[in-house]
Specification:
This protein is of the alpha+beta class. The chain has helices spanning 5-27, 36-70, 73-117, 120-146, 151-178, 182-195, 203-212, 219-253, 256-280, 290-303, 315-343, 347-390, 396-411, 450-460, 505-508, 511-538, and strands at residues 415-421, 427-435, 444-446, 473-477, 482-491, 494-504. Among the domains are: 32-116; 375-538, 2-Layer Sandwich (Beta-Lactamase). It contains 16 helices and 6 strands. Helix 7 packs across helix 8, helix 8 packs antiparallel against helix 9 and helix 12 runs parallel beside helix 16.
Length: 540
């Protein structure tokens, strides 16, 4: 029955919603969302793939050295390209492995926190409290830097800041103590501890003294410099907290491309403002105010020095200006490129994907040519020989054994088995199998269960099998990166059983390997029907 125009529009609208939902789910997928079991499986698969790539790399290197010794430049260049490709592939696998291992450590830490606190909800509340505390401290530090506050207000802010920092340090130490790999946690989150040092702690005095060793001014200038450095320490702390906050926001909003650029720009702004104030403040009193020096630094970085509010007079001031202009041009370019890559899909990603697609297509073409030139002829000869062998077998078991062995020995199947229906057509009984045990269906399988059971149930429900265009049922076999095929054995308008085979994924798509299983299934069904008829005739 044809659909009306309105129904077609509604159906198309539903399809668009479904496609958009699939794309949204795929884009929002994260390693953190996977269970520990899946992550462990990923870990093992990555190790297995890395071992295989490393094996290929050693083999390619052996041939590379051999070609170099034999003085064969063309082959040497090809092997060199192969080594570069395999090295890049191994590095990607290694990077992915580190990501998986880190997520496993994160999961383990969250599980231990949940056991300690009593529930996952409490862990989420703790994380929210940490993020809110960071935002509060950043706000306090920012306000203190930009505004002249009364002493009483500053004292209150210091007190609140210290209490929050104690809470943040306690949270850090708790997580370090619970982490399965404490070295990993220190390497990954050391900045959390540095940023949580209290505002006026004596721990900062040592750093200020060490910094003054690099200052070469008069004694009076040392006093001013010490005050500037104190502000520098507070500004640096603001950047540390901002970095920590951005790190947490990155996990939520995936701002990896912009985070580093924003932090570099922030460091340049604060450094430039404090440096120009210390170097030129004596000649230009307006630059002694942090707000004015910060604005001067911003205009210098963004405009490349063409809109300076003040032209430095000292050699050191001009040197700082030159550095800010050059670094500002670089940071501005990086920020523009990063923002563009966030707002617009990166062309390099598409180009790289097209290159991979072209490489895959060339590999398939090469594989297809190999099949057409050699294996196709061998396969056709083998197919004819096997079909003749099937019709000379005396029993169902013998026929099944010939089919299973032929699929593995002649057509590269990883596993093959033959399952025939019992007299009540309720179960599939395995008559013969060869290949890998772990991917072979069980001896007895109920109709409707598993790949071959579901196919058998559907065909048994059909009244006229002759009118059907019977095709094999395919499914992924992730254990061996192959394709599982269920080929029905149909003859005399009735279902006799099902052949199950697993073909390697890289060959299962080609015509020869895709059609041979079904062709042999037809020959097998006819041979089984002939044996059954002969047995029925002999029994009178």
């Amino acid at each position: 029955m044809s659909l009306t125009k309105r129904q077609q529009v509604q159906q198309l609208s539903n399809q668009r919603i479904e496609v958009a939902e699939i794309a949204r789910q795929a884009s929002q997928w994260r390693l953190m969302d996977c269970s520990d079991t899946i992550l462990e499986q990923m870990h093992q698969n990555l190790l297995r793939e890395m071992t295989e790539v490393e094996k290929q790399l050693h083999e390619a290197n052996y041939h590379f050295q051999l070609y170099v010794e034999k003085g064969r430049p063309l082959e040497t260049s090809r092997k060199q390209a192969t080594i570069e490709r395999l090295s890049f592939e191994w590095e990607n696998l290694d990077r992915r492995l580190r990501e998986v291992d880190e997520v496993l450590l994160e999961h383990n830490l969250r599980d231990r926190l949940a056991n300690l606190l009593g529930s996952t909800v409490r862990v989420n509340l703790l994380d929210a409290s940490v993020l809110i505390s960071i935002l509060i401290v950043v706000g306090f530090t920012f306000v203190e830097l930009l505004f002249n506050l009364p002493e009483q207000v500053i004292t209150t802010l210091y007190t609140i800041d210290t209490v929050i920092c104690i809470f943040l340090i306690a949270d850090f130490m708790l997580r370090v103590n619970l982490a399965q790999d404490k070295g990993w946690y220190w390497r990954r989150y050391w900045i959390d501890l540095v940023a949580s040092i209290p505002f006026y702690s004596f721990l900062r005095v040592g750093r200020l003294v060490r910094l003054t060793r690099f200052m070469r001014f008069s004694r009076a200038t040392h006093i001013v410099s010490a005050l500037r450095l104190l502000r520098l320490s507070r500004a640096f702390r603001l950047l540390l907290f901002a970095f920590r906050g951005l790190d947490k926001l990155t996990k939520t909003f995936q701002l990896n491309l912009l985070k580093r650029t924003i932090m570099i720009a922030g460091v340049l702004l604060v450094f430039g403002a404090l440096s120009i104030g210390a170097l030129e403040g004596a000649q230009e009193t307006s630059l002694q105010e942090f707000q004015e020096s910060l604005w001067w630094t911003f205009t210098t970085i963004v405009t490349g020095g063409f809109a300076d509010l003040y032209n430095p007079n000292t050699a050191s001031g001009r040197l700082v200006t030159v550095g800010l202009v050059l670094l500002g041009l670089t940071v501005t370019g990086i920020f523009t490129a990063s923002l563009t890559s966030v707002l617009v899909e990166d062309d390099s990603v598409r180009i790289e994907q097209k290159q991979r697609d072209m490489q895959a297509q060339l590999t398939e073409i090469s594989h297809a040519m190999s099949l057409l030139s050699k294996k196709t002829n061998e396969g056709l000869i083998a197919l004819e020989s096997i079909a003749e062998d099937l019709v000379h077998q005396p029993s169902r078991t013998a026929i099944s054994r010939v089919l299973a062995n032929a699929m593995v020995e002649n057509f590269d199947a990883l596993q093959a088995s033959v399952h025939l229906l019992d007299n009540k057509q309720k179960k599939l009984i395995r008559m013969a199998y060869t290949g890998m045990d772990e991917i072979t269906p069980p001896d007895n399988l109920a109709v409707g269960s598993g790949l071959i059971g579901e196919l058998a149930a559907e065909l048994l429900a059909e009244s006229d099998l002759i009118a059907l265009d019977i095709e094999p049922r395919n499914n992924l076999c992730v254990e061996v990166q192959g394709i599982s095929m269920a080929c029905p054995l149909v003859a005399g308008n009735r279902l006799l059983g099902v052949m199950h085979a697993v073909m390697p994924e890289d060959v299962a798509r080609f015509y020869l390997y895709n059609r041979v299983p079904m062709t042999l299934a037809h020959h097998t069904a006819i041979a089984i029907l002939a044996v059954d008829l002969l047995a029925y005739t002999d029994n009178g």
